[in-house]
Specification:
single chain, 260 residues, alpha+beta, 3-stranded antiparallel sheet, 11 helices, 11 strands
C-alpha cells in the first residue's frame, strides 16, 4: 500500500451520516482498504483489498508495537464480518464486509466489501466526500474519525450543527452518556482535541438549548493556515502518486478538492 500521505478516502455522504460503530483498529482496516478503492471504477464483491500489519502501524498512534498490533488485528478480523451499518430512514441494516481473512503467512488482512456497500464507495456521481487518510491516521478514538468525517463533509461552509440525539445515533451511543456533560467530556472534547492536533482542521464548538436541555452541538471549523498556504510544487512533492501525469491546473483543482 502507498504511504498514508498518498491515500485518499472517498465515501458517499450517506455512509458518513449513517449509524454504525467500529473500533479504532476496525476503522483503520476499513479506511485503509477504502483508500485503495478507485471510486470511479466498477467494483464487485470478489474484489479484495489488502492492508498489512506494518501499514496499519503507520496508521496508528506512535508507540504501538507490532506484536500487540498483530493481536488486535486478528481480533478485529473476527469481529469485522459481523459489523453492520444502518443506512436510510427505514432502519435497514447491512454488512460492511462480504469476506475477510487474516493472512498469517504475510501478516496482512484482505477484505471484500459487501454488494450493498459497494455503490457507496464506487462510481460516485452524487454527494460524496473525500479526504486524505493521513488526516485521521493519528486519531486516538474511532469517534474522532466519525466526527471529522461529519465536519469535512461541510468544509465549504465551515460550520455544522448536529442534534445531540442524532449524533449519538450515528455513533450508536444512544443508551450511553445520558448526562450530556459525560458525552461532552468523553466523546466531543477528546474528538475535537484529536482533530485540532492531528488533522487539517481547527474546530471550536458551541451549544444550543431546547428548553433547559442541551439539544444541539454547533461546530465551527476552518482549514489550518499551513494547509491553505501549500504551493503546487509542495503538493506535487508530497503527493507523487495522486499528481502523476497531471497538468498544473489539474493539480490546483485536486488541491482545492482536498480541502472542500
Amino acid at each position: 500500500m502507498s504511504g498514508k500521505e498518498d491515500l485518499v478516502v472517498v465515501k458517499d455522504n450517506e455512509i458518513l451520516n449513517a449509524s454504525y460503530r467500529l473500533s479504532l483498529i476496525e476503522q483503520r482496516i476499513v479506511l485503509g482498504c477504502i483508500a485503495r478503492v478507485n471510486s470511479t471504477d466498477e467494483l464487485s464483491k470478489e474484489d479484495g483489498f489488502t492492508v498489512t500489519i506494518s501499514e496499519l502501524q503507520d496508521l496508528t498512534t506512535a508507540g504501538k508495537g507490532l506484536t500487540s498490533l498483530y493481536t488486535e488485528a486478528k481480533q478485529a478480523v473476527e469481529r469485522l464480518y459481523s459489523r453492520s451499518i444502518t443506512l436510510g430512514k427505514d432502519g435497514s441494516k447491512m454488512r460492511w464486509i462480504y469476506a475477510v481473512r487474516y493472512n498469517d503467512d504475510e501478516g496482512s488482512i484482505t477484505l471484500s466489501f459487501s454488494p450493498l456497500i459497494i455503490p457507496y464507495l464506487t462510481q460516485l456521481k452524487g454527494s460524496f466526500t473525500k479526504y486524505k487518510l493521513e488526516y485521521v491516521a493519528n486519531f486516538t478514538s474511532s469517534h474522532s474519525i466519525r466526527i471529522y468525517e461529519l465536519l469535512v463533509q461541510w468544509s465549504s461552509k465551515g460550520e455544522r450543527e448536529v442534534e445531540v440525539s442524532e449524533l449519538k445515533e450515528m455513533l450508536q451511543l444512544g443508551g450511553r452518556y445520558k448526562r450530556f456533560t459525560n458525552f461532552l467530556n468523553r466523546v466531543i472534547k477528546p474528538a475535537i482535541e484529536d482533530i485540532n492536533m492531528h488533522s487539517n482542521l481547527l474546530v471550536t464548538y458551541g451549544l444550543r438549548k431546547r428548553g433547559r436541555s442541551i439539544s444541539h452541538i454547533q461546530f465551527k471549523f476552518d482549514v489550518k493556515q499551513e494547509q491553505k498556504k501549500i504551493t503546487v510544487e509542495q503538493f506535487v512533492r508530497d503527493n507523487p502518486t495522486l499528481t502523476k501525469g497531471k497538468s498544473a491546473p489539474e493539480v490546483m483543482k485536486l488541491m482545492r478538492d482536498m480541502v472542500t
